Amino acid sequence: MNLVKSRPLMVDERHFMCRVFHLFFASFSLFCVLAIGACATVDASKQPATIGAPALEPTKENSTNVKSGAPALNAAAIVAQQNHRVAGLEKFATRGSAELRWHDEEGDHFEQAQVDLAWRNGGEQISLRADKMGERLAWAGANAKQWWLFEPKREPSRLWLGARNTPVPDSLLPFAGPDALLELLAAKPWPEKISLSQDRPGTFWADFDRPARGSWVKTRVQVETNTGFPSHIWLLDAKGNVLAESELSEPVMADMNHLPMADRPMVASKITLKSVSNVGVWQIFWDEPGAREDRLKDRLFDLEVIRGVMRPAEVIDVDKDQPKR
Question: Is residue 240 part of a domain?
């Protein structure tokens, strides 16, 4: 593929890019939760233990499993600390680059894209765009009631619509549950009731239930003891199987000029997302995460405005299950 200048993609390239971004959004949770019913989950008990993390076994409800010899952990204080950080992310915008590496029968592959992510009202409104060499590859978004997903490289181009927690069937870019994206980015408030465990001083683990969204019903978070920053997050099904995971590193203070310095949240500038089917690994590098107003304009969250720009050839409402051209 010629990467020197922007040009219309040929038919074979469109097929290739659709495949690439099927992998992208299958691992990037905004379009993933996780390919419910389409992707096989990974049995955590059969996986090698992730470096720096405990084996991901189903957690016991109503338990606080703090092992002897570890400093006492105050669940209420930990929840308050996490939720104070998340409160600073009521609105957020960033852009950066994303790199996908995967292996198939044809060998090793590598692709890149530019991504823009923004949300308002604590993630109630979300906009996520992916571009390559000036061409729009996908644009997804959500409000409190529904989500939308534009696939301009599909033939014919398509707009998917659905209720906020409804997955897209048979999509090149599987999409379900923008709340999964927020969870994997450590941007959702924690519930009051959590279970804690610790087997060494430097880190501890928090487990808690989430309202069922497809197969995702539980979350496990590895937290750095000294900083309180979440460094590894797993989304689990009811049996403890891993549906998706993220590694959050290189934390920086978000540029939130509307907040006092003490309230400005730390966010990861490097994120690694792993696909539930092990088809690829994405690394995302954010530039200047913050809340710049020029990245939070109303038009980015307005479905009708975006629809006028993207002009999809067909529209599929998954609740009505009827394509409209």
Answer: yes
